[in-house]
Write a structure and sequence with these properties.
Layout: H1 3-19, H2 33-43, E1 55-60, H3 63-80, H4 91-102, E2 114-120, H5 127-144, E3 148-151, H6 156-159, H7 162-168, E4 175-183
Antiparallel strand pairs: 1-2, 2-4, 3-4
The protein binds flavin mononucleotide.
Length: about 200
Amino acid sequence: MKMEHLLEDRRGVLDAIYRRRAVRAYAEPQPSDTVIRALLEAAVHAPTAMHAEPWKFIVIQDRAMLKRYSERAKSMMLADVHRHVDHFPGRSERQEHLAMLDDPAFNIFYDASTLIVICCDAVGRFTEADCWLAAQNLMLAAYAENLGTCCIGFAIPVLNASDVKRELGIPESGAAVAPVIVGSARTQPDPVARKAPDILCWLR
Ligand SMILES: Cc1cc2nc3c(=O)[nH]c(=O)nc-3n(C[C@H](O)[C@H](O)[C@H](O)COP(=O)(O)O)c2cc1C
C-alpha cells in the first residue's frame, strides 16, 4: 500500500475517534441489514483475550419491544436509585435523574430504531472487556457509515432479567454486556470536552 493511502487511513481512524459522539436524537430511516452486518463484522475484529471471541449479537428493531424494555428499565432504576445515591455528584443531579425516569416520554433508547446488544454465552474473566472493545469498533464503524450510536448502560439490568434473557436467547450462563443504539442522527452533538490525560507516573 502506498504511503498516502496509509496516511489517509490513519486520518480516517483518528477522525472517527475524535468526532464520534453519543447521539441521543434519531431520525426515522433505519440502517439497512447490509450496514448492520458490516458493523457486526467490524465488531468481531476487536482485540479479544486469548482469542476467545466470546461475543454474540442480538439486533432488536421491534419498536414495541424496545419501548417495553425501556419502561421496565426505568421502573427498575427508579426502585434502585436510592441505593445509588453516592453515584450522584449532588442533590440537583439526583433530582434531575429522578425526573427523567419519572417522565413517561423518556425512552432510554431515545426512540432509535435499532438496538444491538453484544452478549456472551458464558461469563469469563475477560468477556466484558472483549464485548466493550467490540462495541467501540462497532461505534467507530457506524461513524464511518455516517450513523449515530450511543451505549445504553441503563438497559443492562433489564436485558439481564432472567425472563428477558430467555426471550432473547441468552443462555443462563451468559450475559448481555454492551447495548448500543444505532441510527441516523437527527442532530449532530457538539464536541464534548475531555480532561487532559492524567499521567500518574512515567518511569524510565
Ligand atoms: C458503559 C457506558 C454506558 C453508557 N450508558 C449510557 C446510557 O445509559 N444513556 C446515555 O444516554 N448515555 C450512556 N452512555 C454514553 C455516555 O454518557 C457518553 O459516552 C459520555 O457522556 C461521553 O460523551 P461522548 O460519547 O459523546 O464522547 C454510556 C457510555 C458508556 C461508556
